[in-house]
Amino acid sequence: MSMLTRYAWRNISRHKGRSALTTFAVVISVALLLVGHAVIAGLKQHVVGEFAKQTGDVRLRHAEYEREARFDPLEYTITGFEALAADLAGVPGVRAVLGRVQFRVMVQSTDESTIVPESAGIPEDELTDEQIFGRKVVEFAPAIGLVPSAEREVLRLQDRLVAGTDFTADDAPEIILGSDLARRLGVKAGDEVQIVSYRKGVADAGAKVVGIVDFGNRFANRLAHVPLGVTRRLLDLPDAVTDVLITGPGLDDAADLKARLIASGRVDGLEVKAWSEIGMARLVSAIFGVVLTILLFFIVAVAGVNLLNTMMMTVLERQKEIGVLLALGMKRGAVLRVFVFEALTFGLIGCLLGAALGSFAAHFLAEHGIQLGEGTTRKMFVPVSNTVHAVPTWGGLLFAVGVGLAVSVLGALGPAIRASRVQPIEAMRTK
Amino acid sequence: MIRRALLRTAALTLLALVSRAGPVAAADTPTADFLVQKMDEVMTFKTRTADSTLTVVRDGKSETRSMRIWSRGWDDSFSEFLSPPRDKGVKYLKLEKNLYMFLPTTEKVVKISGHMLRQSVMDSDFSYEDMLEQRALLQDYAATVIGQEKVEGTDCWVVDLVAKAPGQTYARRKTWIAKDTYVPVKAERFAQSGLLLKTLTMHDLVDVGGRRFPSRMLMRDAAREGSHSELKFANMQFDVALPDETFSRRRLMKGN
């Protein structure tokens, strides 16, 4: 074996340029694979994490609400939420139970500086609406009624604040607006707005804009966040919520948590879904799977073709030499092993260098992040930060090195088999 | 062969004309414009005050709200909700085609416009657009008498009103006008596609100040399954003196 090793190594060093090019192809492929894997893992973790902020690990809804959700069917709520939450807290693995109300609301801002006082003595019919009522801006917006203190661990609005503060209390007449909504209303932190609901007639509440949040996403930036108590009074929904969010040990255990909740018999009659079963989550997972597959395909194709080309050239150039070796009694298996060893050497060196380069790049992207561009993230259905950080993992490293080695060996196998099947007489005739 | 076909076509056309003209004898059929004008006269007043209840029945549950209404012609009206406590103090002011809502909790006024007009009034089958309706139908609709029918025992002319130009809330209306009182006892409102959107019926005519006026209206919004809304009037008074301030925007903003 040592003679074969030395022979193979001599062949590699004989064509330094070509060997370096082949190794370089493996280095780049492994590094790209490693970085690609880390970036996709980071993106997936980020998107799934953001998605789970909307859904919890497991989400409960009234079955009819789930079916008619796009029509905002507030007649199908989960009533007796507080008792249900206390009950569910006893299910093994449940860490927190949160109630939310999804609804649509009219938000109105008023600039009273345009009002002409009655004392000015101008007859009413000479005054515009702005001069009597003030300049008003009205926006219809999707809203979430939530318990601020409970959401600090889940929705984490505090991380998205671009102005003002988080809610000061759980039931204060306050509102946190998405940045687009705030811009349209022309309000800033500290201003007052009026929120109006048309459910069961008409009801309104005044609210102070305590904070403005930016999710880097146009859908989330149109949201209004209102304390649950204020929401319930506005909508006349005492003790009811539209969504019950349950968090457990982690997103990977969501399916088990769902099973335990169902087995407990405490969620009978409700629609129970793990985060991964909810609308966009499936699509997100599928998209990442497809992207990773496409990336893998291209990298494997580039590295494989390059290696195949190099090895085929080597075999063709060394036909005569192979013929002589076979004539001198070298076994065909040994010829095969020589070429596989050469490929493995390219692969090993390439994988080691590629892993080093890829790891460096992946860790750099983990620390500094990748700018996705506001134009891209704003259009996504799930709030995605403009900067996404790569997540390098040992799994990703092993995957990249494994694929690099496999491609190196498989790419060389064809030419190696061809070399081992050469007829010595014909090979020696080769010029 | 061609002659036979022509004769057949002529016969069928004649038959169609006869059958169309059948329920309405040409000699004693008033014109559609006359009927609509008479209807407008009956339903129009200089001023009116009334106590009213709005009952919304949906999925077997009913909710009643009471209010006081002041009206000046069809253009201006002011209404104040008196109950239930949740809605007490909500006021609406309609000035021609403008509609304002005062909400007592924040003591602010909301001008209802744009797509807010399609919202229902107090969760009822009436929309703000219905509230803003102008009476002069003939300005915007072309009327045709299409027959006569009985509605709950009342003989009526059936008048078809088709919007003259796009942009009307309802592209077509079919109205049953009572032959004796000219009250529109039933009105169906259609979308451009021909889809029935709403049905309004008027009941319980009462004599007030020498005029007969419906004291109960029933609206059904076809888009709201299992729902109807009833608007009942009591203590109606017509042509009473109302100060201009009744319909004042400043007064609305003050909430009194």
Q: Which secondary structure elements does this structure contain, and how are they paired or packed?
A:
The complex is a heterodimer of chains A (431) and B (256).
Chain A: H1 2-14, H2 16-55, E1 58-62, H3 63-68, E2 78-79, H4 81-88, E3 96-111, H5 129-133, E4 135-146, H6 148-151, E5 161-164, E6 174-178, H7 179-185, E7 192-197, E8 203-213, E9 224-227, H8 228-235, E10 240-241, E11 243-247, H9 254-264, E12 270-274, H10 280-317, H11 319-327, H12 332-368, E13 370-371, H13 374-377, E14 387-388, H14 394-420, H15 424-429
Parallel strand pairs in A: 4-9, 6-8
Antiparallel strand pairs in A: 1-11, 1-12, 2-10, 3-4, 3-7, 3-11, 5-8, 6-9, 7-8, 13-14
Helix pairs in contact in A: 1-12, 2-10, 2-12, 2-14, 10-14, 12-14
Chain B: H1 2-21, H2 32-43, E1 47-58, E2 61-72, E3 76-83, E4 91-95, E5 98-103, E6 108-112, H3 128-131, H4 137-140, E7 141-151, E8 154-163, E9 172-178, E10 184-190, E11 196-208, E12 211-221, E13 227-238, H5 249-254
Antiparallel strand pairs in B: 1-2, 1-13, 2-3, 3-4, 4-5, 5-6, 7-8, 8-9, 9-10, 10-11, 11-12, 12-13
Total beta strand runs of chain B: 13
Biggest sheet: strand arrangement of chain A: 3-4-9-6-8-7
Number of contiguous helices of chain A? 15
CA radius of gyration of chain A: 32 Å
Helix content of chain A: 40-55%
Oligomeric state of the chains present here:
heterodimer
Report the average pLDDT across residues of chain A: 86
Uncertain runs of chain B are 9-25
- The DSSP helix count of chain B reads 5
Question: Which CATH C-level class of chain B is it?
Answer: Mainly Beta
At a glance:
The complex is a heterodimer of chains A (431) and B (256). By secondary structure, chain A is of the alpha+beta class.
How would you sum up this structure, described in words?
The complex is a heterodimer of chains A (431) and B (256). Chain A is α+β, with helices and mostly antiparallel strands and 431 residues long. In chain A, 52% of the residues lie in helices and 19% in strands. Chain A contains 15 helices and 14 strands. Chain A has helices at 2-14, 16-55, 63-68, 81-88, 129-133, 148-151, 179-185, 228-235, 254-264, 280-317, 319-327, 332-368, 374-377, 394-420, 424-429; strands at 58-62, 78-79, 96-111, 135-146, 161-164, 174-178, 192-197, 203-213, 224-227, 240-241, 243-247, 270-274, 370-371, 387-388. In chain A, the strands form 3 sheets. In chain A, strands 3-4-9-6-8-7 form a 6-stranded mixed β-barrel. A two-stranded antiparallel sheet of chain A has the order 2-10. In chain A, strand 7 and strand 8 (203-213) form a beta hairpin. In chain A, helix 1 (2-14) packs across helix 12 (332-368), helix 2 runs antiparallel to helix 14 (394-420) and helix 12 (332-368) packs antiparallel against helix 14. Chain A is elongated, with a radius of gyration of 32 Å. The model of chain A has no long low-confidence stretch (mean pLDDT 86). With 256 residues, chain B is of the alpha+beta class. Chain B has a single domain (28-254), classed as outer membrane lipoprotein receptor (LolB), chain A (Clam), CATH 2.50.20. Chain B is globular and about 55 Å long. Chain B starts with a helix and ends with a helix. Mean pLDDT of chain B is 85; it is low at 9-25. The chains are: A alpha+beta (431), B alpha+beta (256). At the A-B interface, strand 3, helix 5, strand 4 and strand 8 of A face strand 5, strand 6 and helix 5 of B.
